[in-house]
Structure formats: C-alpha cells, structure tokens
Amino acid sequence: MQRLKVVVLALMAVFALAAFASSTAFGADAEFLPTASEAYKGESGPGTLETLAHKNITCNKDTSSGALSGRTATLHIDFSECKGENGLVTCTGLGEASGVILVLGSALLVYDSLSPLGVAILVTLNLLHLSCSIVLVEILGKVLCLIGTLNTATKHNEIKCEMLEKEKSGDPKERTYWEGGVEKTIPATEELLSSFNHGTFEMSAELTSALILTTNNITLDG
After folding, report:
1. Domain count, the chain
2. What are phi and psi of 160, to 5 degrees?
3. Is 3 inside any structural domain?
4. Could you list the residue range(s) of the whole structural domain that residue 200 is in?
5. What's the pLDDT tens digit per position in 8-41?
6. Residue 189 — left, alpha, or beta (φ > 0 → left; ψ -120 to 50 → alpha)?
7. Global pTM?
8. 178 - beta bridge partners?
9. DSSP letters of 193-219?
10. 3-class DSSP state for residue 7?
11. Would you call 55 helix, strand, or coil by DSSP?
12. Inside any domain, residue 2
C-alpha cells in the first residue's frame, strides 16, 4: 500500500500518548486499572496534517513531556519548524514563536481490535488556532492511533497513525475501537477536522510514527 511521504501535525496530540500503557495490565474483557502517576517524555521527526482537499501543514519535529495515570492523560506537545502550502509559508500557533505550534488535549487508552488483541490511543484535540501567512487554520476532533507491542516489557513505545491509500489522503485508516467490550466508531462530526480561513471544516488525517520513553518498563498484556 502506497503511503504519503508526509507525516502529521494535528496528531500533535498523539505523540505523548503511548505512555498510557505504563504499569497497566489488561485483557480483552478486563477494565484498565488506575496506576500511580508515571512520567514520560517523547519526540518525533517530521509530521503532516493532510485534508481531503490536499491542504497540508508539516512540522519537522516535536517534543512532549508530562505524567499520566491509568487509562487517561492530558496532552502538552510543542511542534516546531512548521510550514504550510507545501512548505512555502511558515505556520505558527496563536501566541507562539514563529514556526512553533502548541497542542493541548486529552487521550484515552482503548482497544483497536479484539482478535487479535490490539491497543490504540484515542486522542481528543482542543480547538487549535494557527496561522500560515495570511491563512487562519482551525483544527479539532479525534484521532485514533495504534501503539506498542503486546506482552513485551519496554521503556519505549511506538505510536503509529495512518491514512488510507494516497488517492484518499486526508482519510484516516483507523476509526473503529472497543471500549468496555463495546464496538464504537468515531462519529463523522467528531473526527479530525480542519478549517481554513473560517471555511467549512473538512475531514483530515495524519501519517506518522513516534517514540515515547517512560521512566519504568511497560508491559501491555493481551
């Protein structure tokens, strides 16, 4: 399957999430158990937000840090060296230094599949305002990404967020997840959406991978 060579910005919120798995054990029908606060830090390489209309914003890197407990966490991620219009203009978050975008939100650890058991991160982004030259961009909604390796103890976890085929760029690959044994799908009105110059919000997606480092070893038990 051919992939875009762009990787995500609006998933800005996702990079801090793999740390959720810290000190948490679960099975297909088990509840996620709350744990003591766990520190994490993370970083990634290039990432791009892509819309169905092929508008995009790319950032060369990001850093994240904080703490989490149980299956929930808040997000604080700084993206830098951000560009829009295929790299022609600088994109900057409201009140941030040039080319820097701060992303805030929340996240939830869920199942991506039950057979075989898979783990995913459901991210909800706070409404984000940024400008790319004279273009005002607003981004909000939910992103679903896969994380980690089951039954392996490690301080490193990888997050993967994908789009469908290149001809469907801006269309997220992952929409369905399981919570409490119930299958759920992100509603169209709650998916990752982007608006340019106060226009209609349109579907957006991201293709990216990132590594997260936790203080203690993490084991995702299937």
Report:
1. 1
2. -130, 125
3. no
4. 10-218
5. 333 333 433 433 333 333 333 333 433 556 667 7
6. alpha
7. 0.76
8. 111, 183
9. EEEETT---EEEEE-EEEEEEEEEEE-
10. coil
11. coil
12. no
